[in-house]
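Below: protein 1.
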Amino acid sequence: MKHGTPQPFGQGVSHYENFPVASRLCPPHLRPAIVAIYWFARTADDLADEGNATPQMRLTALAAYRADLMATDAGQPPSLRWASVFNRLRPMILKFGLPIQLLADLLSAFEQDIVKQRYATEDELLAYCKLSANSVGRLLLHLYGVHDERSLQQSDCICTALQLINFWQDLSLDIARGRLYLPADALQAHGVDEAQLLALSLHPSTISLIADCVISARARMLKGSDLVKKIPGRGGWELRLVVQGGLRILDKIEALNFNTLTQRPTLGPWDIVVMGWRALWM
């Protein structure tokens, strides 16, 4: 999974950015559930991305981890290997009725990370975002008791936008690791050769490609942004900051003339002030 993006509905650690660690703005009664799901996700992230295991070893470990999730949901004891994770998660599944399919979707995203480093089309990339990011947003909406279809779609827009922003922010890092999230159909439409990207070589066509990706991510974020008005209390304010954080990263990318092949935009103290001010007016 990717690192360093403003997190859906919260502030996470860099280790696993698609899920929040409960912040001060999170309602206290939800913190145990959020922490339990976070540790579920972080452990899976470790299995998929840490250490020197081979791809097949990682896939085997994730299959065993998935089996423990299914056992936990069925009220059966998990294996000793991850007992601390699932013994923490089980009471939250019972208390909140957490949708197991969304947790399983996260595991599918981790498995995809292991075997897939290229995306042929935008639809293919968005399907990955549905597993890796949208499932997180829907889990959190479930905890907040928000279930209407419009809110779910708005959450999907925000979470997909955050995932895409992370991709466009981290092009220089991901390409160096052999991962290219810019879909092949977009490269073709802009006349960009993959070899140029792998060489981190900047051309007008590349700038145009990244600019279009940024414009699309911003539009998707704004499309979902009214969701902040549906999340009650402090959670709604936290979501406002998350949305503004994603938009601020896009501002930073634009200020770099869309050159994230050789530079990585980051947020500083002044950006936090700007995000807070803009959040007040949402």
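Below: protein 2.
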Amino acid sequence: CVPARSLARDRSRRRRSSPPLVRANPNSRRPISPPRRSADPPADPTVWYGELPPAGAKRHLKGMTAETIEEMENLPLDWSELDRLSGDDDDDEKKRRRERHARDVGAGDFPTLKELQDAETEESKRRMLRRILEMKKQKEDKLKRVSVRDEEGRSGATGRRKTATARVTIKPGTGVFFVNHKPLDEYILDINERGWALSPFVLTKTIGLFDAVASVRGGGLSGQAQAIRHGVARALQLYEPSFRPALKRAGYLTRDPRMVERKKPGRKKARKAFQWVKR
């Protein structure tokens, strides 16, 4: 007679020694089955021992319904080329596929691989030619640009931002900057807005090499400072065309089109509505 305690101990040992039950797909509702026990592999590591996974086209059709498989078989594909590559020997099946293909899309509708490669090569050649022509045009435009100066060696331009308009004139000097007959630091007190007006000189490394005179009208101090920046940048590129690429990349030559949106009737501002009371 074996005590019940010893039997329970033996069962727990066998349970711990057995491999855990693992579900292959966590989302599957199929009952968990214990893993298959295979014989020990041979000593030679180059020999595969076990069951190989299913291969071929059948494994792709395994989870599909009969209606889906039938729809796939009725697709208008060029089965003649696929049969040639796959080496299918079923002549009746080949004939049926060719007849269905000829009936659905006709023969010769699909381009060959060589035709596709040739078309892609032609498209790349056209893109390269367009790029070369564009670069050639840019070089010609660059050669056409010349310095625009008056008899005193000055260059002038107009800058705009919001509702502000600034007429700026620059000439070689010591870095004197006047805005509306006042020094720049007296007219524009904010250091950030003053930096906006001087940024084209800083970008082209010509700070202190030009005297500038600006006449600005309209807008507030922020819009006037940015209008002066626009005018200074355009005047610099007129004085020396080689400054244009750097100024263009920084966006100083582009007129900023953003404006305050007009007030709408029935609203407090452009889009803000009046406070609404239900009762």
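The radius of gyration is 40 Å.
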